[in-house]
Amino acid sequence: MSQISDVTDTSLPFLTLSGVRKTYPGIVALSGLEMSVRPGEVIGLVGENGAGKSTLMKILGGVIAPDQGTIVIDGVTHDALTVGQSIKAGIAFVHQELNLFDNLDVAANIFIGREDRSGGWLNLVDHAALRAKTLPLLKRIGANFSADAPVKSLSLAQRQMVEIAKALSVDARLVILDEPTSSLPLAETDKLLDVIAGLKAQGVAVVFISHRLHEIERVADRIIVLRDGALVGVLNRAEANHDRMVKLMIGRELALRDYQPPANIGAICLSARGVRTGSYPERSIDLDLRKGEILGLAGLVGSGRTEFARVLFGIDESFGGSVTLDGTPLVVANSADAVAQGVFLVPEDRKSDGILLDFTIAQNISLPNLEAHASAMLVSARSEGAAAEIEKINLGIKAPSVATRTGTLSGGNQQKVVLAKWLAMNPRLMILDEPTRGIDVGAKAEIYRLMRALADRGVGILMISSDMEEVISVSDRIAVMHEGAIAGVLERDQFSQENVLLLAVGRQLAS
Question: How many degrees, rounded to 5, is the angle at CA 207 between CA 201 and CA 213?
Answer without folding.
Answer: 105
